[in-house]
Write a structure and sequence with these properties.
CATH topology of the largest domain: Nucleotidyltransferase, domain 5
Largest sheet: 5 strands, mixed
Helix content: 40-55%
Structural class: alpha/beta
Order of helices and strands: EEEHHEHEHEEEHHHHEHEHH
Bound molecules: 5'-O-[(R)-(carboxyoxy)(hydroxy)phosphoryl]adenosine, zinc ion
CATH class of the largest domain: Alpha Beta
CATH superfamily of the largest domain: ATPase, nucleotide binding domain
Number of strands: 10
Number of helices: 11
Shape: globular
Radius of gyration: 20 Å
Strand order of the largest sheet: 3-2-1-4-5
Distance between the termini: 27 Å
CATH architecture of the largest domain: 2-Layer Sandwich
Length: 330
């Protein structure tokens, strides 16, 4: 079964074709980073308008690169939440129209579940499917969730952030340091030049829960930057990243131990951070998997992949499905 997937929840319009939820036949992402960078963040109206212009060419390219155009496409899937309403609207309605026009089954996908399914995509290493039950750490611009995945479609959320998401903290700290947008990749790059930071920033352990908090850390960085003689920004970036990674890795390893899972799966844009991948792998009691970086940040491959597992169980969404900007997961 080949699924055409569409993702448009934020500032990327993406389309992809994936076979059996694992083999990537095409992967097209139209990024708007240049459009939003001068505002220091995503402007919803600008994103929605850019999606409208990108939609049909991106879908056409994904079909062309997969080979055979519409021939061989068995279903259409799109993200319906969570995300920006105006952004979601474009991708969801394009997907529903295409499914209707072609007489194909349609499925709406939860963006966060999509991120997790990036771990099922073949990465060329021949490693096979992840093992379940698994503990999933979903770390993106909008979410920081620890999710116990018993089986396909069976999730239980163990913890979440109480304030800023991990990616949001990277973005805000990068802004404070004048490093630009998006913050994650640039902080990782700047911090890479510092072996061990000269000082420590706070860590919110929140004992007795699997929840997270990053707003105190962000405030600590703000105070540092206002110092009469602030430390060099690569030092601040490194201390910040070390603090985020320490908390994420320690709490994930602890939760994996007490939940008795067989694997840890990383997902979401922040999962492309190599310090995070390294620390979790070092501390986890069970094997850790993470998608290649291009499948960690927003893409449509993960949406098509996730949709396959629902479609294979006979699930379909009605064409009346609407966007749900605050769609919950687990
Ligand atoms: O999953 P994603 O592409 O979009 C959302 O669903 O939010 O995640 C985007 C977030 C941004 O906050 C970005 O700064 C962060 O992921 N990010 C990173 C890295 N690459 C992207 N954070 C830390 N290190 C990275 N290398
Ligand atoms: Zn995302």
């Amino acid at each position: 079964m080949r699924v055409l997937g569409i993702e448009s929840s934020c500032d990327e319009f993406a389309a992809a074709v994936v076979e059996r939820g694992r083999r990537v036949l095409s992967n097209v992402v139209a990024s708007q980073i240049d459009l939003h960078a001068r505002y220091g963040g995503v402007v919803p109206e600008v994103a929605s308008r850019a999606h409208l212009r990108a939609a049909i060419p991106v879908v056409d390219q994904a079909l062309r690169e997969a080979g055979g155009g519409w021939h061989g496409i068995d279903a259409v899937a799109a993200t319906y939440g969570p995300g920006l309403a105006g952004s979601l609207l474009v991708g969801l309605n394009v997907a529903k129209s295409l499914a209707f026009g072609r007489g194909l089954p349609f499925l709406g996908v939860n963006h966060l579940e999509g991120h997790i399914y990036a771990n099922w995509l073949e990465d060329g290493s021949g490693r096979g499917d992840p093992e379940q039950p698994a503990l999933c750490l979903v770390v993106s611009g909008g979410h920081t969730d620890l999710i116990h995945m018993q089986d396909h479609g069976r999730y239980h959320r163990l913890g979440r952030t109480r304030d800023d998401a991990a990616g949001e903290a990277f973005d805000k700290v990068a802004r404070l340091l004048g490093l630009g947008f998006p913050g994650g990749p640039v902080i990782e790059r700047v911090a890479a030049g510092v072996a061990v930071p000269d000082f420590e920033l706070p860590r919110a352990w929140l004992r007795g829960t699997d929840d997270f908090s990053f707003s105190g850390l962000k405030t600590a960085v703000l105070h540092l930057t206002r110092d009469a003689a602030p430390p060099p920004r690569e030092q601040i970036a490194a201390a910040f990243q070390t603090s985020v990674v320490d908390v994420l890795a320690e709490k994930t390893a602890r939760a994996a131990r007490s939940a008795g899972v067989r694997q840890v799966l990383l997902a979401g844009g922040v999962a492309s951070n190599s310090a995070l991948r390294r620390e979790i792998t070092a501390r986890s009691p069970v094997p850790v998997r993470f998608p290649p970086p291009r499948y960690c940040t927003d893409n449509a491959v993960m949406i098509a992949g996730c949709a396959y597992f629902h479609l294979a169980r006979g699930e379909r969404s009605p064409l009346s499905l609407d966007v749900q900007p605050n769609l919950k997961f687990a």
